Fold this sequence. Notes:
Elements: H1 3-12, H2 19-22, E1 23-27, E2 29-31, E3 37-38, H3 43-52, E4 61-62, E5 64-67, E6 76-79, E7 82-86, H4 87-93, H5 100-106, E8 112-119, E9 125-127, H6 131-140, E10 153-157, E11 161-167, H7 183-200, H8 202-208, H9 210-218, H10 224-240, H11 244-261, H12 269-280, H13 286-289, E12 293-298, E13 303-306, E14 312-324, E15 330-333, H14 341-347, E16 357-358, E17 361-364, E18 367-370, E19 378-384, E20 389-392, E21 399-405, E22 407-411, E23 417-421, E24 425-428, E25 434-438, E26 442-448, H15 451-456
Antiparallel strand pairs: 1-6, 1-24, 2-5, 3-4, 5-8, 6-7, 8-14, 9-15, 10-13, 10-14, 11-12, 11-14, 13-16, 17-18, 18-19, 19-26, 20-25, 21-24, 21-26, 22-23, 22-25
Helix pairs in contact: 8-11, 9-10, 10-14
Bound molecules: zinc ion (ZN).
Zinc ion binds at residues 126, 128, 153, 312.
Cofactor: Zn(2+)
InterPro entries: Man6P_Isoase-1, Mannose-6-P_Isomerase, Pmannose_isomerase-type1_CS, PMI_typeI_cat, PMI_typeI_hel, RmlC-like_jellyroll, RmlC_Cupin_sf
Active site: 331
Amino acid sequence: MEAASVSKQQHGNSNINNDKVIIQRLRCSVKNYEWGRPCRDSLVAKIFGKNSGSQLDEDQPYAEFWMGSHVSGPSFVVSDGLQRVTLKSWLLENPNVLGHKVLEKWGGDLPFLFKVLSVDKALSIQAHPDKDLARTLHKLHPDVYKDGNHKPEMALALTEFEALCSFVTLKPCIMPILDPDDELQNGVLFDCLEIKAVLSVPEVVELVGVENVNLVLQITDEDGEEKFKPILQSLFTEIMSASRERVTGAVGRLRNRLHRESQVRQLTVKEQLVLRLEKQYPSDVGVIAAFFLNHVKLSPGEALFLGANEPHAYICGECIECMATSDNVVRAGLTPKYRDVQTLCSMLTYKQGSPEILRGVPTNPYVNKYIPPFEEFEIDCCILPQGEIAVFPGVPGPSIFLVPVGEGMMNTESPKGYPITEGDVLFVAANTEISVTSASELHLFRAGVNSRFFQAS
Ligand SMILES: [Zn+2]
């Protein structure tokens, strides 16, 4: 946005202090993607039903609940119980609620998109482009790549949550001298098992070829991750671009072999996962690609963040998700949707090793803050016992609050209070201090612009 128009809006719109503007109730969109949980045990369905007052379709899966201004799943501002305008057009009329730093940086729109996910069946193996690639892809294929923005994301687990992400370490293995009391050495051994597992899977070797396997075996410990990256890229590309017939054959043989071997030995966790994926997506190359990615299990309260060009696939569980406002996904496996194998394989960073898990930083006795390394967003998680108060200090940017559980009251400095209950979603303007009191145990999630963005600017 031009500086001149920002300053005009700052001076031309003085209703920022108007009570009607600082808090808005939102009615939000739902996505019934086929990987979603069945209606009866989907948190997304429960929240959407209460938020919209709509009749739920018992026969549909409920996958994602979207809170934000993206055109593919808009939220609407509600007043006097009536759905008025989209949040996006309301923000254009009331830009000051975003705060001037956000306006200067991102224009008159919300920089983040907030979601709830209920995952029953694995999502596609995917990655999200960086800003430059996003712009290029959108220009070339606007029908597939819907916008020109990047899409860093973070998933905060509400239940046990499983995902595949980033490549397993493929460093050559020097067997450590084993000391069962030394956890670090056990960690090293674990990585050794990963490489051994991947390159000793006959169906993997079948698809990548013995020459490629030998290339890996020639790498020495001194060569390091950088030298290994092109080899990893060529292995992964070989697998992802194998012909339909070869993949179908390899996946079938893999399934039969693991079923047979499960009679005489305990399958590894990765092998068990691979069999689950094969049931969900028979003959899909993603079943074999899964061997190359870290299998991560989050407990409730743990979060995983993914930068640009990192491969990942959510497998099962429910989570709160936040991302930059974008819907750009490059898919290559575990999906009936459009696959762009060439783009995916060439865009990935091929970074190896387990991802960083965030556990949040307490900002008061009831609130935990999750700050990923992306300027667009952060998440606060508040679990408030009955009859307690939590204060969210005013921040220089906009916030969206979601109430998945419980009821209570939300207050600003003005005497008017806002009753809150399950399914409520509220937009809160920049620089508004919020205090929340709970009538029962109350769970509350807040998405806002990353606080490091305001500290840095
Ligand atoms: Zn993703």
